[in-house]
């Protein structure tokens, strides 16, 4: 006689409670959040989306000046500027994903406190909208790439370039997973926000963004980067586009497993938090 | 199906922690964790106390809601009322899945969408139209559904002229209009509305209430309506839930609920009024010595005030009661010295009974009473009693006064020759 209930709200949580069907129902919301992020980010700025380009360009210029010209770091046969730009472009995507998603709960407290929708939509939309930004920066990189070829530099793309999307996927998963873990913990312990902002900066130096892997190996500091999945991603990414550096089998497997594990852990923790975070934030 | 139950709330309780959450949390979390791995109950669930805002409790944890049980039928408009802090918003938050209950469960046969506050999820930089899409999607609509209803939504909101302007340029009333319009066309099985209408103007409130009636009568959908506005509740709801300090005080017919509960509530503030050696021990306004929170226009009333004195009082003691509106402006005053009533307190206590023979003639709204005493000094007690006045059949008016018409009813008859 008892009809089936459409859903039940109860305090018990399953370990993995990711309702993919529900997330799919809200796919339009995901796209609208992406649209919102893109069109509102640079509203009321003069340079608008040009900021997407200025950030990596200026960082590359400064890095080239400091690390390559002053400190004299060698980048193989690759122009240092291009070497840095490649590293920074790749690194930026991870960084943006991580820092933006790690703020999810705190930043959206207002809206999360009023309506329900699958919370995971929010960090997912951040990863997607950063993908657009990443795409623009890749275009800039290609422009410089062509420029350097026409000015007589000998540049070739690795045959592994077709694996580049896999790399981006790994970064997305890593950024999303870590970001979700951190954002879940920030709801209770605000300390983590400080940790993220300077932790990411420090992490960059051991992620081979400015220094090539060969230099770490040469000086006997390989251990510093060996277990950092981002180091592998940046190094292999640069290998794919510039054919400079190396890809190790261990690195590829390690990075893939690590990314998937972090993403799963992130989903579990995020799900556990989303039910009650509004009471603790 | 007439008795189709669409929503069932079973033993729902919600616990909150008081004070700032800071250094204590890690140790509490750790204790919880220890209890859980030993298979015991959460140690902090026991010590909660009922939620009475004004009284000081020992425990750091309170029950914002405790053992809430009720059912809602399909197509019903259920009103939820209660004082500030009674647990209304917490209940709605649990219903709309914003936060989980501590214990208990809610079973639903329909999609719940909530319209909890002004412009939830509006992005100030985006235009009205963009925000309709965003807000609709947040509430669970697909892009296609929104597109098909866009014209209706814009028309209902009455913001056509501004629809391509960023929402940050909107007035707060326009934001509510837009937000309500989106939610009203959302067609959820259960719509939750929380005191949003207060911001809109009279015309829009009427429109919104009409729309809610349509939603339930024609669409067969259910509305949960939270409000402090007794008239809206009376005209809209078929059943009523009254919350007090986190527990249910009443579930049933609207008229009966308002009669039983609101007309017999204890509305003398628990905080004590002591000043210049004078204390107000108790004060009531209502029929005989019962105290009311809602008072009908022109219904004869009794006011009882009990004062006690720490020192001896002069024989020419005088006192006044000011009836103030929401802005603290006195609408009228009753006074012992304007009536040349000599008061001679016996012992150290004084019981005063004032009869308002024709009741209050005030227009609908919120009012409060302040007390002033004259001994050797003048002593003012602000907001001793608070109540709202609602329309009644005694006014002789066929339609209730609107705020633009003024502040008091004038009993009148007309003769045209």
Structural class of chain A: mainly alpha
Biggest beta sheet summary of chain A: none
Pick out the low-confidence regions of chain B: none
Extended strand count of chain A: 1
CATH level-four homologous superfamily name of the largest domain in chain B: P-loop containing nucleotide triphosphate hydrolases
Domains of chain B, number = 2
Strand order of the largest sheet of chain B: 6-7-8-4-9-10
Biggest interface, chains and residues, is: A-B, 38 and 44 residues
Number of helices of chain A: 14
How would you name the oligomeric state of the polypeptide chains in this document?
A: heterodimer
Strand content of chain A: under 5%
Entry summary:
Chain A is mainly α and 281 residues long. Helix content of chain A is 69%, strand content 1%.
Task: Give a description of the structure.
- The complex is a heterodimer of chains A (281) and B (417).
- Chain A has helices spanning 20-25, 27-41, 51-70, 80-101, 104-107, 109-112, 121-150, 164-186, 191-205, 213-218, 223-226, 229-242, 249-274, 277-280; one strand at 7-9.
- Chain A has 281 residues and is mostly helical.
- Chain A has one domain.
- Chain A is globular and about 70 Å long.
- Chain A starts with 6 loop residues before the first strand and ends with a helix.
- The model of chain A has no long low-confidence stretch (mean pLDDT 83).
- By secondary structure, chain B is α/β, with parallel strands linked by helices.
- Chain B has two domains: 68-262, P-loop containing nucleotide triphosphate hydrolases (Rossmann fold, 3-Layer(aba) Sandwich), CATH 3.40.50; 269-405, Distorted Sandwich (Coagulation Factor XIII, Chain A, domain 1).
- Helices cover 22% and strands 32% of the residues of chain B.
- Chain B is built from eight helices and 19 strands.
- In chain B, the strands form four sheets. Chain B has a six-stranded mixed beta sheet with strand order 6-7-8-4-9-10, sandwiched between helices.
- In chain B, helix 6 (202-217) links the parallel strand 7 (190-194) and strand 8.
- In chain B, helix 4 crosses helix 5.
- Chain A binds chain B through residues 3-11, 13, 25-26, 28-29, 31-33, 35-36, 39-40, 43-44, 110-117, 188-189, 275-276, 278-280, and chain B through 8, 16-17, 21, 25, 93-114, 116-117, 120-121, 123, 125-126, 130, 133-134, 137-143.
- Strand 1 of chain A pairs antiparallel with strand 5 of chain B, so a sheet runs across the interface.
């Amino acid at each position: 006689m008892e009809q089936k209930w459409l859903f039940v709200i109860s305090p018990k949580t399953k370990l993995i409670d990711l309702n993919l069907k529900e997330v799919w129902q809200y796919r339009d919301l995901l796209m609208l959040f992406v649209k919102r992020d893109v069109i509102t980010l640079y509203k009321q700025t003069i340079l608008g989306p040009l900021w997407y380009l200025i950030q990596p360009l200026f960082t590359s210029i400064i890095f080239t000046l400091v690390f390559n010209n002053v400190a004299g770091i060698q980048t193989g046969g690759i122009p240092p500027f291009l070497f840095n730009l490649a590293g920074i472009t790749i690194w930026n995507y991870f960084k943006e994903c991580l820092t933006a998603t790690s703020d999810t709960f705190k930043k959206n407290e207002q809206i999360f406190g009023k309506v329900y929708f699958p919370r995971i939509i929010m960090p997912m939309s951040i990863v997607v909208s950063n993908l657009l930004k990443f795409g623009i920066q890749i275009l800039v990189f290609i422009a410089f790439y062509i420029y350097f070829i026409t000015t007589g530099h000998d540049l070739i793309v690795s045959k592994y370039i077709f694996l580049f999307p896999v790399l981006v996927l790994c970064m997305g998963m890593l950024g999303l997973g870590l970001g979700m873990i951190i954002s879940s913990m920030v709801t209770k312990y605000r300390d983590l926000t400080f940790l993220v902002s300077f932790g990411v900066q420090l992490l960059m130096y051991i992620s081979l963004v400015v220094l090539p892997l060969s230099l770490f190996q040469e000086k006997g500091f390989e251990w510093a980067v060996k277990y950092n999945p981002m180091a592998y991603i940046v190094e292999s990414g640069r290998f794919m586009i510039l054919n400079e550096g190396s890809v190790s089998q261990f690195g590829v497997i390690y990075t893939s497993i690590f990314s998937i594990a972090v993403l799963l852990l992130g989903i579990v923790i995020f799900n556990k938090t989303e039910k009650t975070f509004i009471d603790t934030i | 199906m007439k008795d189709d139950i669409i929503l069932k709330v079973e033993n729902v309780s919600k616990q909150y922690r008081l004070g700032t959450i800071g250094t204590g949390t890690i140790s509490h979390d750790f204790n919880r964790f220890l209890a859980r791995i030993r298979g015991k109950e959460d140690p902090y669930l026991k010590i909660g106390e009922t939620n009475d805002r004004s009284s000081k409790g020992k425990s750091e944890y309170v029950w914002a809601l405790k053992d809430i049980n009720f059912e809602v039928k399909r197509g019903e408009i259920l009103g939820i009322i209660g004082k500030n802090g009674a647990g209304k918003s917490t209940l709605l938050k649990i219903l709309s899945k914003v936060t989980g209950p501590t214990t208990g469960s809610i079973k639903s046969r329909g999609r719940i969408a909530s319209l909890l506050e002004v412009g939830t999820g509006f992005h100030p930089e985006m235009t009205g139209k963009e925000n309709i899409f965003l807000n609709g999607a947040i509430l669970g609509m697909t892009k296609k559904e929104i597109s098909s209803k866009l014209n209706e939504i814009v028309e209902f909101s009455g913001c056509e002229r501004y629809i391509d302007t960023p929402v940050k340029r909107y007035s707060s009333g326009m934001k509510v209009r837009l937000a309500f319009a989106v939610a009203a066309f959302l067609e959820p099985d259960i719509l939750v509305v929380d005191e949003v209408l207060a911001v809109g103007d009279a015309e829009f409130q009427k429109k919104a209430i009409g729309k809610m009636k349509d939603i339930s009568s024609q669409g067969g959908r259910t509305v949960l309506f939270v409000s402090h506005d007794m008239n809206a509740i009376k005209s809209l709801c078929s059943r009523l839930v009254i919350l007090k300090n986190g527990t249910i005080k009443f579930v049933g017919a609207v008229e009966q609920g308002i009669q039983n509960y609101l007309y017999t509530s204890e509305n003398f503030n628990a905080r004590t009024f002591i000043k210049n050696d004078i204390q107000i021990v108790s004060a009531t306004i209502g029929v005989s010595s019962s105290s009311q929170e809602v008072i009908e226009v022109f219904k004869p009333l009794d006011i009882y005030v009990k004062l006690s004195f720490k020192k001896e009082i002069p024989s020419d003691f005088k006192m006044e009661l000011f009836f103030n509106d929401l802005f603290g402006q006195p609408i009228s005053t009753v006074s012992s010295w304007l009536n040349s009533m000599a008061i001679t307190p016996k012992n150290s206590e004084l019981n005063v009974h004032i009869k308002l023979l024709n009741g209050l003639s005030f227009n609908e709204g919120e009012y409060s009473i302040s007390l002033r005493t004259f001994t050797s000094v003048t002593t003012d007690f602000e907001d001793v009693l608070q109540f709202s006045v609602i329309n009644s059949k005694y006014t002789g008016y066929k339609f209730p006064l609107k705020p633009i018409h003024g502040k008091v009813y004038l009993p009148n008859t007309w003769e045209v020759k």
